[in-house]
Write a structure and sequence with these properties.
Layout: H1 13-35, H2 37-40, E1 42-45, E2 48-51, H3 53-74, H4 80-101, H5 108-133
Antiparallel strand pairs: 1-2
Helix pairs in contact: 1-3, 4-5
Length: 139
């Protein structure tokens, strides 16, 4: 018997789609954060708005997160499913907080509705991880 390496499984189409979405997000965020004054002066972290210099200094963190997501989904890195699920839940929780604390928010009921909807991708990503761990097909 020879120990020939098995080729990696083909990337599921949905992972390709998510990787491209992450890359497109970076392509939109970078010019917006650099050249659109009203956009570059506000960033939201943990549901709290940062303005001015703090927003401009933390904007690249969003770019890095989405680039890491594009890389992880494209190359099917083992850390991508739990990391992306955690980020989806973080975004959901941030919407809940932002809706309550921001003057632009619409209260906790709207925030809760947003959080529930934005949690759906997190649940789906965790289910995909469980399927993969059990040897199932992610297609």
């Amino acid at each position: 018997m020879t120990d020939t390496p098995t080729p990696p499984k083909a990337r599921p189409r949905w992972m390709t789609g998510v990787a491209l979405f992450c890359l497109l997000t970076v392509a939109v965020l970078v010019p917006r954060d650099l050249f659109v004054p009203t956009a570059r002066d506000v960033e939201v972290w943990f549901g709290f708005e940062l303005h001015g210099t703090a927003a401009r200094l933390t904007a690249p963190l969003h770019w890095i997160l989405f680039l890491a997501g594009a890389y992880g989904f494209w190359f099917q890195r083992p850390w991508i499913l739990p990391s992306a699920a955690a980020y989806a839940f973080y975004v959901a929780a941030s919407h809940l907080v932002w809706s309550e604390v921001s003057p632009n928010g619409h209260g906790w009921i709207a925030g809760l509705a947003q959080a529930l909807v934005l949690s759906i991708p997190g649940v789906l990503l965790l289910r995909a991880r469980r399927t993969k761990e059990r040897g199932g097909d992610l297609a």
